[in-house]
Amino acid sequence: MASFMLRSVVPKLQWAASSLKPRSMNSRLLLSTNSGPMSASAANAGREVRDSASNLQNQLGNNMKQGNKEAKRTAEDVKDKAASTAEQVGQKTKEVASKVTEKAQDLGEKTKQTVQGAWEAAKETTQKIKDTVVGKAEDVKEAVKEEAENVKRNINSKM
């Protein structure tokens, strides 16, 4: 829109071009020239250009503000999602650790039961061996006593 205005205003200002010194173009230059019958329209054109530039600056500023707001919202969303993911990972880690602890306790209990069972079996086997050995020893003792008495009787009978 600004370029259209400049194209329509420039031919009207060509008669004043000879009196202007070449400088960088700015709105103050257009507004400060006051020579000739076209100065009012030149001033209007300058105002239009200035207003157009101002509107463009305002739009650019608004677009930048909008972009900043969207970037901030996106950053907050990413932050929220990261926090949520971290919380889920932490929860899952706790669950896995709890399960590992339970399995370790179960394994420890089973190991304890196995060792107790083996100890009981060893005690029972030892008792059976003791009973068997003591029983045989008593049988042998009785047998030895009977033989000793037989020998004694035989000796007494020969005498």
Please explain how this structure is put together.
By secondary structure, the chain is mainly alpha-helical. It has one domain (2-118). It contains 3 helices and no strands. It has helices at residues 2-17, 27-32, 39-158. Helix 1 packs antiparallel against helix 3. The longest helix has 120 residues, at 39-158. The radius of gyration is 57 Å and the shape is rod-shaped. Residues 1-6 and 27-34 have low confidence and may be disordered.
Considering the chains and any ligands shown, give keywords for the structure.
rod-shaped, disordered N terminus, 89% helix, 159 residues, mainly alpha
Question: What's the layout of helices and strands?
Answer:
Layout: H1 2-17, H2 27-32, H3 39-158
Helix pairs in contact: 1-3
Percent range for helical residues? over 70%
Low-pLDDT runs of 5+ residues are 1-6, 27-34
Q: Which sheet architecture does the biggest sheet show?
A: none
Domains, number: 1
Rg calculated over all Cα atoms: 57 Å
> How many strand elements?
0
Oligomeric state of this protein: single chain
**Count of discrete alpha- or pi-helical segments spanning 4 or more residues:** 3
Shape: rod-shaped
Strand percent estimate: under 5%
Q: Which secondary-structure class do the elements indicate?
A: mainly alpha
Mean pLDDT across residues: 78
Q: Between the first and last Cα atoms, what is the distance in angstroms?
A: 158 Å
Tell me the series of helices and strands, N- to C-terminal. Answer: HHH
